[in-house]
């Protein structure tokens, strides 16, 4: 619904008559008929189980997500339930913090948080195709990589055709191969993400292809479960800060929705402060924040190693600003050197970060240096994708092949002859520092 307009979830519609994005609304009075302890016990009892689909981190909260869909129409790979990693060493040594955590949303079926939203969207499409007299020829998306991987996998599981528009030469090989392997029609288009987004919107307006990008509000219902899960993992306590990499900005609003629903239904007693981290090369929200959110202007996104957030005209800009205003939120940016160094430095303490997580970590470092975030604040950084998807950029960093970057934390392999003495020389040099 938008501005009083209401639509059924079975309708194929993405914007209101006035052009605004739609939002899924729940019957809060019906949910409030059960007290907070009921919901806590129910969600806790389902976590990580094998009962389909309730063992999923998303569908364990089915009543808060998509309550009307039959279980046998759900398309799930038991996504979610991702670990909350205590970044003890990095927090203490780099930031002087004892309570730093990383929500590993990339530990999922296709290696990114996009699975959380795609299970809901594809399940609803599956439900429409099985019950409604509507023709859906395929599900399509524009993507910088991770959305296409999630869409193709879930559509393949449901035997629904999928189509993806990718910007040519702007995503990693690991991201490109995922939709290819899952049988999607992959179109590599000579443009950037914003250009792909424009094309897919035109195509879905003229054909029976269902749009799967984050302007589709169903995606956010699944993504909001990561916020609920964080509360659950902290025994229903809320962190002080949540740091989120920001590109198209749907995930910012999704986290806000998840925390807000927990708060409104009495499971928690407050909201966290949201921190959105943007790459300096694609920073329209940061520029708006600095200007007090007055006169938002899209930018032409420049190349960034954080390719999934290389977006200059974010679809969910107004929803993200709402979330930030409601939580006294903060926006920070990170340069290419800052984000790559932060990812590499954190990797040295046992993580294996994607560049987008590097943006979030770099933003956190800057906010700690400025004294904006307190040393004793419980802080959660959202890691959006698995580092293995970005092995190319990691290899380039550690090989010191990136022009303009000093690669401060580079750790290249040492070439050694097959000779005991040569091996011992290297070991002695390393171990006797």
CATH class of the domain at 1-111 and 218-389, anyone?
Alpha Beta
Order of helices and strands: HHHEHEHEHEHEHEHHEHEHHEHHEHH
Give start-end ranges of low-pLDDT stretches. Answer: none
Major pleated sheet: 6 strands, mixed
Could you tell me how far the N terminus lies from the C terminus, measured between alpha carbons in angstroms?
64 Å
> Helix count?
17
Average pLDDT, rounded to a whole number, is 93
At CATH level 2, the architecture of the domain at 1-111 and 218-389 is 3-Layer(aba) Sandwich
Structural class estimated from helices and strands: alpha/beta
- What would you report as the Rg, rounded to the nearest angstrom? 22 Å
Spatial strand sequence of the major β-sheet: 1-2-10-7-8-9
How many E strands?
10
**Estimated share of beta-strand residues:** 5-15%
User: How much helix is in the residues?
Assistant: 40-55%
Shape: globular
CATH topology of the domain at 1-111 and 218-389: Rossmann fold
């Amino acid at each position: 619904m938008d501005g009083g307009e209401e639509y059924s979830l079975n309708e194929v519609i993405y914007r209101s008559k006035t052009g605004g994005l739609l939002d899924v609304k729940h019957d809060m009075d019906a949910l409030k008929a059960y007290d907070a302890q009921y919901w806590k016990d129910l969600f806790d009892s389902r976590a990580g189980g094998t009962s389909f689909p309730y063992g999923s981190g998303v569908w364990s909260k089915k009543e808060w997500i998509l309550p009307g869909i039959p279980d046998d129409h759900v398309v799930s790979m038991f996504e979610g339930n991702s670990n909350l990693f205590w970044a003890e060493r990095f927090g203490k040594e780099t930031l002087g913090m004892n309570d730093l955590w990383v929500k590993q949303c990339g530990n999922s079926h296709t290696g990114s948080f996009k699975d959380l939203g795609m299970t809901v969207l594809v399940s609803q499409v599956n439900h429409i195709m099985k019950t409604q007299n509507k023709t859906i020829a395929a599900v399509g998306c524009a993507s910088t990589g991770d959305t296409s991987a999630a869409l193709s996998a879930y559509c393949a599981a449901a035997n629904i055709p999928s189509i993806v528009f990718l910007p040519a030469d702007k995503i990693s090989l690991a991201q490109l191969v995922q939709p290819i392997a899952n049988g999607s029609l992959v179109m590599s288009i000579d443009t950037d993400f914003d250009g792909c987004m424009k094309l897919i919107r035109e195509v879905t307006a003229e054909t029976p292809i269902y749009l799967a990008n984050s302007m589709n509000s169903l995606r956010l219902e699944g993504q909001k479960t990561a916020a609920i899960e964080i509360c659950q993992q902290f025994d229903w306590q809320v962190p002080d800060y949540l740091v989120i990499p920001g590109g198209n900005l749907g995930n910012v609003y999704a986290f806000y929705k998840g925390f807000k629903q927990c708060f409104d239904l009495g499971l928690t007693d407050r909201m966290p402060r949201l921190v959105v981290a943007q790459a300096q090369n694609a920073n329209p929200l940061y520029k708006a924040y600095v200007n007090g959110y007055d006169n938002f202007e899209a930018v032409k996104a420049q190349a960034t190693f954080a390719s999934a957030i290389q977006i200059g005209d974010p679809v969910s800009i107004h929803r993200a600003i709402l979330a930030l205003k409601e939580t006294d939120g903060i926006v920070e940016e990170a340069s290419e050197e800052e984000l790559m160094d932060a990812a590499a430095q954190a990797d040295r303490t046992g993580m294996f970060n994607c560049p987008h997580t590097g943006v979030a970590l770099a933003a956190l470092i800057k906010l700690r240096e400025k004294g904006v975030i307190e040393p004793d604040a419980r802080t959660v950084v959202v890691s959006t994708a698995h580092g293995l998807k970005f092995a190319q950029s990691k290899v380039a960093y550690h090989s010191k092949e990136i022009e303009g970057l000093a690669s401060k934390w580079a750790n290249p392999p040492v070439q050694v002859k097959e000779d005991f003495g040569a091996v011992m020389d290297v070991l002695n040099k390393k171990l006797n520092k």
